Inverse folding.
């Protein structure tokens, strides 16, 4: 009796993609990428590149916060000011 050979495939296609992405972010691969970047850009330029990447990420995060938080509605503020003025109360006076 012979047993059919087992195939070493992931159970689903997604599982295979997840494993590939996890393998790409391993410490060994990251070290290799940093060494290649050091060879390509040189030791003087690498800190400048790191700083500019950091600024880019911070600016992206700031813009995402601005998009997720709605700006105050100018019409509603004007309506509140008009209502306060017509009732005789002034929000600026204490």
């Amino acid at each position: 009796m012979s047993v059919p050979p087992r195939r070493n495939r992931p159970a689903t296609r997604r599982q295979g993609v997840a494993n590939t992405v996890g393998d790409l972010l391993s410490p060994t691969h990251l070290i290799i990428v940093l060494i290649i970047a050091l060879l390509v850009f040189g030791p003087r330029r690498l800190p400048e590149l790191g700083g500019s990447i950091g600024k880019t990420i911070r600016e992206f995060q700031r813009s995402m916060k601005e998009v997720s938080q709605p700006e105050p509605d100018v019409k509603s503020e004007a309506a509140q000011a008009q209502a306060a003025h017509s009732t005789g109360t002034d929000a600026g006076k204490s």
